Amino acid sequence: MLSSKRALTFGAGALASALALAACSSGNVSTDSGSGGAAGGKVTLNLATVNNGQMKDMEKLKTEYEKANPGTTVNFQVMEEGDLRAAVTADVASGAGQYDVVTIGAYETPQWGANGWLVDLTPDLKSDSSYDVDDILPPVRDVNTYDGKLFAVPFYGESSILMYNKDLLSKAGVTLSENPTWQQVADAAKKVNSADTSGICMRGKPGWGDLFAPLTTVVQTFGGNWYDDKWNATVNTPEWKQAVTFYKTMLDQSGEKDPVSYSFNECLTALKEGKAAMWADASVAASMLEADDSPVKGKMGYAHMPVEKTKQSGWLWSWNLAIPSSTKNKDAALKFVKWATSKDYIKLVGQKIGWSNVPPGSRTSTYEIPEYKEAAAAYAPITLDVMSSVNPKQPGVNPQGWVGIQYVSIPEFQDVGNQCAQLVADYIAGRGSVDDALAKCQTLAQAAGDKHKS
Amino acid sequence: MSVRELDAVEAKVATEPRRVNKKELWSARGLLLPAVIFLILLTQVPFVVTIVYSSLKWNLLYPNDRGFTGFDNYKSALTSGDLWPSIVATVLITAFSVILSVLIGMLFAILLDRDFRGRAIARTLMITPFLVMPAAASLIWKYSMFDTNIGILNWLSRALHLPVVSWSTEHPMLSVVIVLTWQFTPFMMLILLAGLQGQDKGILEAAQVDGAGTWRTFTWITLPHLRMYIEIGVLLGAVIILQVFDPIAILTKGTGGTKTLAYLLYERAFIGLDVGQAAAYGVVTVILTIIVATVALRTLFKVFMAGGSR
Amino acid sequence: MNRSVKGSLVTLLTWVLVLAFFFPVFWMILNGFKPESVASSVHPKLFFSPSTEGYQLAMDRGMKGYLLNSLTASVTATIIAVVLAIPAAYALSIRRVKNVENALSFFISTRFMPLAAVVLPLFMILKTLGLLDNIYMLAVVYGAVNLPVAVWMMRSFFLEVPFEIIEACRVDGAGLGREIFRVALPLVLPGVASAALITFIFSWNEYFLATLLTSSAARTTPPFLGSFVDGRGQFLAVLSAAATIAALPVIIAGWVAQKQLVRGLSMGAIK
Predict the structure, then answer these.
(1) Among residues of chain B, what percentage have pLDDT more than 70?
(2) Nearest-CA neighbor of A353 among A59, A38, A109?
(3) Between these two residues, C213 and A26, which has the higher pLDDT value?
């Protein structure tokens, strides 16, 4: 060990300068990472995006853009959500400038916009009447706006709805209204539940974007929330306890067997295979349940997200394209972003890939296209209805100090949400009590909230 | 020639007194230097930077609020109560995985040491789990083995009219250990198989002739002979498994007492995004591992250093 | 008679266990040929009409480029590790420096360093130097990660070289370079192969550093594999196909060079 200590001191001395450089550079040092500059009219755009269907369709269609814009190459980097966050955050926060276009969630946009990391898109989009920025669904525009400026444009948006297998429900003699309550859903789940089929499938995988996406909306409709409007954490309230206990009881009585493993994809499989009768999750799931290879195509019913004390309980999420301020190809990036979120792009997807694959939840006009209306008849109306009626400024019973539904748009939230999700998941798995979990979570949330009290 | 004899030969070569003049010593240092400098540049320098970061208040998402905070990050790291459970999780997962893969690896090594038709093919198939990319291996276990609906294990349970097992929820640590054991059993098997094949067959036959049963021959002759191989397998397996991250990220997300130090560090750095705090956790972890490593290294040296105390 | 029956039973048992153990890999390969909806079916299907859709999709999304990057990174890392390890191991075995143990523990202790602890600083340093998303830089990092094991491994091979040979060579007045490369190295070529194989395998499969230190031009296969993990939809079939392609080079390398693998894994302790 002696020599490694010596080596350490040696390293410290000899390379102090390099280190000082690294530690203190504030992100203005640019790197040339192969994204050829504007020289000679040739531009390579590096785009970091999340791996889901709509993005992969865009990857397929990028050649259309490249054909229409000779000299521009668009380089797609598709990543799993967690990796995308790690890679893009490290890049943008350090100003490394490796990416010209990034895909970020509604959670990130206002924070990154406030930090000055993103190009303000408002002037360019407002001045372009053919882009029609007002066509973007208002709640989605709200969550991507900070200080009156639009920092990212939605590529795809979703709310959450309740999906149910009509056959299984009617076999058990259960009917559901368009606007059910959670209690009704839990009762229905219990009746439908059998040894072979679980009554309901709900996310239990620990993660702020997994378990806590639906669970936060449940808490909110039960009257709770993460913080009050003065940033006091409110996790140790009776409303939280009631909501979390309700969630666990429902899972215990009629949920899937292995909740810690289950999130969107696992529930999707369970529903498709007839292993679960109901599912409250992202509205985009409907298009997958109605896909041609789905065994339950045409057998599904859709309702609003169940409620308790509020009128609506759907969440609001969008994946958006944004341009980091560190890009060297701002104009080319902007042009591409406008293309990929335009009305024409939506039609292009419809024609080239299929109308049921059109990215939903971004533009009102999408829901007026006759071909789409026909292809998505089962779920398009309810999606538009829910997405336009949710209120990200006050989703719960009481006013809140941030814009957003199933998340809190402060930097600490993904950490707090994740740790709380692990605590709650342990409670759901029967390791520990709800009071302990929520008390610990309250402490974590309060520490984060304290930083935002003014 | 047995391993012990080989050791003895090595010992002679390695410790033979030589006239080492100054010039030779310098040229020897010259030989060593490139590797040492290279490693310092790539591992020690980032570590020194980590130490510097650990004294900074620096959350990636608060670019305008940066400064020196002294030991605050360490204070929060040590008082958060995250470290101790992580140490326990790391030790338990590493220990269980290593022990199980040694035991199962031993079983396979003994079975594959026999001569039978298609032995080469069987051995080749056995190695494969170790060669599959770790992240892919975890995903495949999660979906096609453990899943309550589409997993093969639960399909088997249902076929045998046994209750369905919720692996990640009910047995989080076991799930992680199973995946790791599956990946590392071939590793142990290969090492132990080499040990078995290096055995003096004459001694074994003599023991048989003397009427020692299979079990006695194994415990009295084979096991002592394999001791060194087991030690090597355990130590090297432990070094790699200590850093393992994928099965936890994919199967349990750190619930149910599976949040290992490697996963904790990842969480602090890439979910917490607090560079200062993450660095403090990193430094503490490095100190802890160095302490453990020093103990482990002593044993390693005993195994590897020719002319050691064995 | 009784004995041979017992023998066949043990052979049967061996095969059952081996096949059970191999099953997840077999299932992965099989799933790669299934349509997505069959791969995630509740009733596991052994027989189905195979489709190469998953493979097609993986290749269409440019897998070749990622495989090439992986190859460049792994081969370069292997060369770096071996080239640096040979002289160092020589100095730690035949031309003895003082404090061999200290040097050896320095090397191995760097292997204990948790990557997650140093990756952010490494990112910042590389950013400052303009070396992010550079395939050779990634190879240099992999070289450093694997160098300690390579040094340990090579050292135990050099220890086997009979000292008389070296001495004879020195008496002939051969220089140091000749002593290492003409005399000792040919005797330890299997060791070089082992070190190279291990470095290659670990570099090929590395995911974490590749995700963070590369963005586009230098992306390797593992992060590309990760891109098949879909947040909104099923992906088991296409992931299995891509994982099979990605694992193939390493599996073949491991199968062909089983002996070197054993030595490599044990860092040269097993001959």
Answers:
(1) 87
(2) A59
(3) C213
So what CATH class is C54-265?
A: mainly alpha
Whole-number mean pLDDT of chain A?
89
Inspect the interface and report whether the beta carbons of A269 and C234 lie closer than 8 Å: yes
Which one of A1, A2, A4, A6 would you mutate to disrupt binding with C, by most C Cβ within 10 Å of its Cβ? A4
Same domain, A247 and A306: yes
In this structure, the answer to whether residues A255 and A327 fall within a common structural domain is: no
Which residues neighbour B254 within 8 Å (Cβ) at sequence distance 6 or greater?
Answer: A206, A422, B248, B260, B263, B264, B267
Q: Residue A214's domain is classified under what CATH number?
A: 3.40.190.10
The answer to whether A173 and A190 have CB atoms below 8 angstroms apart is no
Is there a single domain that holds both residue A369 and residue A408? no
Q: Is residue A421 within a helix (H) or strand (E), and if so which, with residue range? A: helix A413-428
**Does A8 contact B48 at a Cβ distance shorter than 8 Å?**
yes
Q: What is the average pLDDT across A174-179?
A: 94
C267 pLDDT band (50/70/90 cuts)?
low
Per-residue pLDDT at B173 exceeds 90 = yes
Other chains touching C, judged by 3 or more CB pairs under 8 Å: A, B
Identify whether A6 is part of a domain.
no
Q: Is the pTM of this model over 0.90?
A: no
Domain boundaries, chain B: 83-258
Q: Which residue of C has its CA nearest to B32?
A: C88
Could you count the other beta carbons within 10 Å of the beta carbon of residue B96? Answer: 18
pLDDT of res. B3: 38
Query: Structural domain tally of chain A?
Result: 2
A415 inside domain: yes
Chain mean pLDDT for chain B: 83
- CATH code at B83-258: 1.10.3720.10
Q: Is C205 at the interface with chain B, CB within 8 A?
A: yes
| Domain that includes residue A102, residue range | 39-158+317-375
Residue C257's pLDDT is 78
Q: Assign C172 to helix, strand or coil.
A: coil
The answer to whether B14 touches B306, Cβ cutoff 8 Å, is yes
For the stretch A426-436, pLDDT in tens is 999 999 999 99
**What's the token pair of residue A253?**
């009585």
